[in-house]
Design goal:
Elements lengths: L2 E7 L4 H4 L13 H16 L6 E4 L3 H15 L15 E4 L16 H8 L1 H9 L36 H21 L4 E5 L1 H12 L3 H4 L10 E5 L5 E6 L2
Parallel strand pairs: 1-4, 2-3, 2-4
Antiparallel strand pairs: 1-5, 5-6
Helix pairs in contact: 2-3, 4-5, 6-7
């Protein structure tokens, strides 16, 4: 019997809407993002999904997306078949599921940044697998070491900037060390995270090349289902619409 896991990129954030580099900046969902999360919860409920465990980042846009999805699935109009049988899943939050850190670009408007540095350079920062954006200094107020959210994280692990390659390196130990053992126990899991951490996982699961992963887009608010075999190798994957 296949092992299912659902991946969900958070709904549109306020800074997505404003076309700004977000990264680890903790911004909330836009109204459209709230609607996307509600729609995701409804379709998951209508398709009969039930989760034992949920994983998300420490950032509010991913957490709110997960909260809204679970609210739609479990707290509203539960069918008699699932009423009382399916408690809310246990939720795990980790900084390793955070979005890629965009360094000194965080907070900047993408179009204005392209005018300043040139579209070619910004495209390299955004789309290169191994070239990160300009780094913050540790004195910069945007450095995560100043944020109480990360007080329990070793400061050497907190990024000043990240490429997608570095995001993969940050995320994969959490996948293999924390999430995979639950999947081997047949736990039903949803991961509500970010475009780049989910791209990191897709790269790993589907063995996507460094050249091709940079062109992969994961849309906001649309559940991506992976059916895995007993060795956690993908059988197939598909979006729920």
């Amino acid at each position: 019997m296949p092992i299912n896991i659902v991946l969900l990129r958070h709904g549109e954030s306020i800074w997505n809407q404003e076309n700004r580099f977000t990264g680890w900046t903790d911004v909330d969902l836009s109204q459209k993002g709230v609607s996307e999360a509600k729609a995701a919860g409804i379709i998951l409920k209508n398709k009969g999904f039930i989760f034992d465990l949920a994983f998300t980042s420490v950032l509010i846009r991913a957490q709110r997306t997960l909260d809204i999805v679970l609210d739609e699935m479990y707290r509203r109009g539960l069918s008699p078949a699932t009423q009382g049988e399916s408690p809310l899943p246990e939720v795990f939050k980790s900084w390793r599921l955070n979005e890629r850190h965009y360094g000194a670009l965080q907070g900047l408007n993408k179009a204005e940044t392209a005018k300043k540095f040139g579209e070619k350079q910004v495209a390299i920062w955004r789309r290169s697998y191994s070239i990160p954006p300009p780094a913050l200094s540790k004195e910069d107020k945007r450095f995560p070491g100043h944020d109480p959210l990360y007080k329990d994280v070793d400061i050497k692990d907190l990024p000043l900037t990240e490429s997608l390659k570095e995001t993969v390196k940050r995320f994969l130990p959490y996948w293999t060390g924390t999430i995979e053992p639950f999947l081997y126990k047949q736990k039903r899991i949803i991961i509500a995270a970010h475009g780049n951490t989910l791209r990191a996982l897709v790269k790993y699961l589907d063995n996507v090349s460094e050249e091709n992963i940079v062109n992969l887009e994961i849309p906001t608010g649309i559940p991506l289902v992976y059916e895995l075999d007993g060795s956690l190798k993908p059988i197939k994957s598909y979006y729920l619409h």
